[in-house]
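Repro:
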Amino acid sequence: MPDHAEPPNPRTPSGAANTLPAPPRRPVDAVLFDFHGTLAQVEDPVSWVVAGAAECGTALDRGRATVLADRLITAGRAGGPLPNRVPPQLAEVWANRDLYEYAHRAAYTGLASTVNTGVDGLAEALYERLLRPEGWVPYTDTAATLQALRAAKVPVAVVSNIGFDIRPFFTAWGLADLIDTYVLSYEVGRCKPDPDIFLRACGALRVDPERALMVGDSPADAGAVRAGCAALLLPAAEAGRPNGLGAVLDLAIRDAGNG
């Protein structure tokens, strides 16, 4: 075939071109967002360790902080990858970390304490940073996406597997008025992918699950499909970068008000 030639069109037995109709678009009346890895990311690991050590009265140079950060992430950092190993004495609190505040704290301070950092109190200081807005960075397209949804009158819920309250973060970032409700696992006693947590979010927004879109970054978020919702999974990006949230607007705002 010449380089410039068009590829042959597939044909049906009758000789007509075989073109499949596009699947119908589901209307989207509300959007449910995961928190970590979707709307925000934990701060850079080295900055996390340097800041935590400073709160303990210890100044770390970048080289030592980098080594400690690598070891602490391997042990298990909240907002980071899953630990390579959970010590037996932490197994129970680890299993319940997203259901109870005490378990979340005990699990992650316990994991950090398995690392000999040489800084007294560092495990607690690192966990405390997790509870404050400065320990997190919203993605660069988070605010614009939430603002566009609000302008289009599309209600928004944050649905998160988490062991502490994230509402103050949105207040600190000037985004609180853009969130209609929060459904947090430790408050409702359910964790994604349990369909009930998504159904609770839809109930709070008064929207039929079949007209809701769940946006996340993990298979747990895709569990919304079992509740009847549509799901959009985006790859988690590094802190301070865009996260591709504009795709949500293509799906939701075009359909807003088109009942």
